[in-house]
Write a structure and sequence with these properties.
four-stranded antiparallel β-sheet, alpha+beta, elongated, 36% helix, 11 strands
């Protein structure tokens, strides 16, 4: 068999498929994986016969002697995988610079070792260390914000695994009001915001994207329903118009929101923008604008700046924030009245 760039790429793709122990690749799946990349790079495709010839060639002792096994399942079906988890037909040649960058990555990942919620990282780090002869730095040089006691964090590894490997999930979920509901979710994306983790996926029952907080997931298991591929949503831009993890309803439009900050807070907001759309309108008076769809998370962000922030426009949003401040003030005023009537209450 002639060795050319086309063939070498096919072997690399097949090697990755046979090394993936999280997914079952049938012959048609292998064909799809190979043709997708061949077409992108060379504008060509191959037949299923060629894939079978490639498998035969890779198995050949003179060629690669690859331990490719066809594992039967579900009646007449079979999937292809290496029998040796550590086997690969390619040695990864990395430059010194590449190895230094990889070493830094291993050091950062190593910061998360030891947590029950991050046991999935242990295999990743160990494989990198074994394959490239690197070891993570034992010194604690970098700190990341994390809460190992966060409820639902124990689900994170399996949720990420299901998202990567397109595994549909049947989930028992606790609503904000404490009602337990069952749903079938096709997981598409996992996001962290404000110390909490969220799963985004197609909800079979609602036929739309649902946002599930991991700390409200009571139980989950793999579903027998086939995975519905994400052909509608680009999660690299999905959150561009919002602050936080919540996507508002379609009738909530993007607004230009003007904010005035105190002289003490303004430099902080300039150095750490509230949103990527933020731009300075008036340096002297500490005014900035952001273009977002208002959400509860935006309200929370603005309240964290009180008393150093004022919403200038739009008028309806300024009024909404003012009403919430007034409602909160009533609580403080009521406590003051209670203190006047009952001295003991104030000295507790």
């Amino acid at each position: 068999m002639a060795t050319n760039k086309n063939a070498q790429l096919r072997y690399q793709i097949l090697d990755r498929c046979f090394s993936n122990f999280h997914k079952r690749y049938e012959i048609d799946d292998l064909l799809d994986e190979v043709n997708e990349q061949l077409f992108d790079i060379f504008g060509t495709t191959v037949s299923i016969r060629q894939i079978r010839e490639d498998i035969k060639y890779m198995r050949d002792r003179v060629s690669f002697n690859a331990p490719i096994v066809a594992y039967p399942y579900d009646g007449k079906k079979c999937y292809y995988r290496y029998s040796d988890r550590k086997y690969t037909i390619y040695e990864n040649a990395l430059s010194v610079d590449d190895l230094n960058k990889l070493q830094s990555t291993i050091d950062m990942l190593g910061r998360f070792r030891g947590s029950a919620a991050n046991v999935w990282l242990e295999e990743v780090i160990s494989n990198l260390e074994y394959r490239f002869g690197l070891k993570s730095n034992t010194e604690h040089l970098i700190s990341f914000e994390q809460n190992d006691q966060l409820k639902g964090i124990e689900h994170l590894a399996d949720i990420i695994d299901a998202t990567i490997n397109h595994q549909t999930l049947d989930i028992s979920y606790m609503t904000f009001k404490g009602k337990e509901i069952m749903m079938t979710i096709h997981p598409y994306y996992v996001k962290q915001y404000n110390g909490r983790w969220f799963l985004y996926g197609l909800n079979d029952e609602l036929n739309r994207i649902s946002n599930l907080a991991l700390d409200r997931i009571h139980h989950y298991e793999k579903s027998e329903k086939p995975f519905r591929k994400n052909d509608l949503y680009d999660f690299s831009t999905y959150f561009d118009d919002v602050i936080g993890a919540t996507i508002p309803k379609d009738d909530v439009n993007k607004e230009i929101i003007g904010l005035r900050f105190s002289s003490n807070r303004f430099p902080y907001v300039v150095s750490k923008p509230i949103h990527k759309s933020q731009k300075v309108i008036d340096d002297k008076n500490g005014i900035v604008e952001i273009q977002v769809r208002p959400t509860r998370e935006l309200d929370q962000q603005l309240f964290s700046f009180i008393p150093d922030v004022e919403v200038l426009y739009p008028e309806w949003y300024r009024q909404q924030i003012m009403e919430k401040i007034e409602e909160n003030m009533k609580k403080y005023l009521s406590v003051k009245k209670d203190c006047t009537d009952n001295t003991d209450l104030c000295t507790r």
